[in-house]
Specification:
2 copies of one chain form a homodimer. By secondary structure, chain A is mostly helical. The first copy, chain A, is built from 19 helices and no strands. The longest helix of chain A is centred in the N-terminal third of the chain and has 32 residues. Chains A, B: It is a multi-pass membrane protein.
Amino acid sequence: MDAAEAPPPPASSDAANRSSRRRLPEWRRCLSAVGRFAEEKVGRIAREDPRRVAHSFKVGLALTLVSVLYYVTPLFNGFGGSAMWAVLTVVIVMEFTVGATLSKGVNRALATLVASSLAIGAHKGASLIVSSENTESILLIVFIFFVASAATFSRFIPEIKARYDYGVGIFILTFSLVAVSSYRVEELMPLALQRTSTIFVGVAICLCTTVLVFPVWAGDDLHKLAASNLDKLADFLEGMETECFGENARSGNLEGKDFHDAYKSILSSKDKEDSLCTLAKWEPIHRKFGFRYPWSQYQNLGTLCRQCASTMEALASYVAILRKYQYPEANPQLYMKVQKTCSQMSLHSARTLRELSSAVRSMTTPSAMNKDLSAAMKYANGCRNELLQDSALLQLSDMVTQINEITESVNNLARLARFKNQEKARNDVVINVRNQ
Amino acid sequence: MDAAEAPPPPASSDAANRSSRRRLPEWRRCLSAVGRFAEEKVGRIAREDPRRVAHSFKVGLALTLVSVLYYVTPLFNGFGGSAMWAVLTVVIVMEFTVGATLSKGVNRALATLVASSLAIGAHKGASLIVSSENTESILLIVFIFFVASAATFSRFIPEIKARYDYGVGIFILTFSLVAVSSYRVEELMPLALQRTSTIFVGVAICLCTTVLVFPVWAGDDLHKLAASNLDKLADFLEGMETECFGENARSGNLEGKDFHDAYKSILSSKDKEDSLCTLAKWEPIHRKFGFRYPWSQYQNLGTLCRQCASTMEALASYVAILRKYQYPEANPQLYMKVQKTCSQMSLHSARTLRELSSAVRSMTTPSAMNKDLSAAMKYANGCRNELLQDSALLQLSDMVTQINEITESVNNLARLARFKNQEKARNDVVINVRNQ
């Protein structure tokens, strides 16, 4: 049906009449609205992280490479029907980060090797024990039942679930396939070899694509996550200072503010951090991340950041309750007295965190004596008596202790990962500038 | 090497000598230690949830059924090499719950249908447009590149990621495979039909096994999770009462107590709850869960429980800080005054939550007027002046408000899910008892 030939939609009112002035048929306008919505959504997702677009094209590229190999090389002619295993491998193994692709590829290759050897062994064993073909197939089915059950159960063991879940799946698949095929295929060995080699070709193509074309490193993401968590903690403290304790403290209302929502994302960052850390350990040396880089340190730092964020949550809920029951009006004197202390503690703590985050970002050792941290500690320690009158202050001073622990953790990371010395880094910059 | 023939291990000391009295060789003792450890671990995992063992055997059973079909029926003889697709489907589609298996099975079947149709269409289209075989294969490769890239990108859209991630993966796989095969296989249509029908056989076997043999329902788990979350909240309040506010209040130390760790698991229950809810919607009618059962209500209830747990966390961290700075000793009068109020609020709130959890468990409507909730509300409202002196009290009274919301949410659930009337349920029990 052409748009020009379509009857105009029945006009139910003047307004509808006006809006349909262009005489586009209903379904076309609907379609264009859906199109615009999808365009916006897709655009937003792509802009949020342009590496997603690159990854999509990388998957396309890897599949194209496999198909081209399939079309042109005599190699794949020899492989025959097994060539599809390379396609299957590429679709399953290609992941967003280098670490994930590498771990899946190795899992797949090893599981295939182990399972096919075991299945061929089972087949040979069965044919040695019994002579009749029927009895042999019954024996093989019993094998399949018990091996599949045991392997499935092993997936419930947390350590295996975390690291080898995918490998166990491939193991069950390959074992069943080879064991079942052994019944009909005369020459099992060449078939198993063919499949294994095509799978290796698929894994190799995935690894080349993922490392050589716009590589996405899990280690990079983990490093950036640590720095951004520190920034978010600093944001919250600065926001608290502005809204609640500062000289021009405004509403005292934290809900709906950007910094208030930001620290919540820290609380739920554990899973992402753990999986990035597992993947980062798989990745080869790249950029500034050398051999045996102390990735686990990021998990320690993350745990401390989450504890700090949880104290912040308690503090925020406390401030919200105070506001609800007009606490400042009820106790104006106490409120005035503690306001300055809180303001100073928040400001100095925020500056400490900012320095730490920029040290992590630039991979330089943070300065040994942090003046802001000492100032915050001084305020926290100096006014215990005042503190005892108000639990918000107690919580805030507890937070300063936690920030001290975070500082130590960043220092540890800097030492273990051999961050550059800050002085030296500055000199390097100066030399670079002079040389230009 | 036999154990009897093995030389005794070199005794480095008397102690070592005594321990190796039985003259077991080193590697055997090592092996038996590993065995005992594995046995304990496996035993614990199996006891924690015996359905895991059942699931493992179910996977074994489904694979055995596929293999038997492969061995005995002339049906599979006709399918030839495609029979392996049934094995592959079973390994991939079998999941722990009925809902997950059903959703994966439908995803797999639909994605295969759509992708093979599209690939065959692309093949036909390409052969219509160009005449040379080489040009056609180039055209097909270009198709694969763009379709795979677009489909991979769609996986980054959260809505698609949550529901159809697996389906999109299968779509890419099937499209590439059929498009690539089209180059070498003469008769594409029969091949595609064969594969699709074997996949349907695989999905059917999975569904039969998962529904007929010890079915595990995601809906059941979601329902039990809701009840146990309510119980954990009650546990915390009772624990608080015993440790901090009660007449024989002991240590005031909450760390390391069972109830203190329990509420933390509520905070991290969101992902599990969401995924169970998505899967429960896939499941057919079973037991007391009828058609269009209001599963989303469990998510509302869960959100309220998490808010309440988060207030509890704030309260617990507050109590910990008070303890750290010996607040009770510093302000004995205030502490005494608020202790009774806190104790009563905690006790009545805990009883309210217990009643709600038992109502959810037995699927009966909770009583319309909850005396304990009214008592807790009375304490919370009656002492605003005292409350203003201490923020712990403020937080506790805030929690009473939240428990009121939880009560409303459970009532909503009872109405929408048509829970039995409590009076009627009791009468039923009486009648049952009399009939026995």
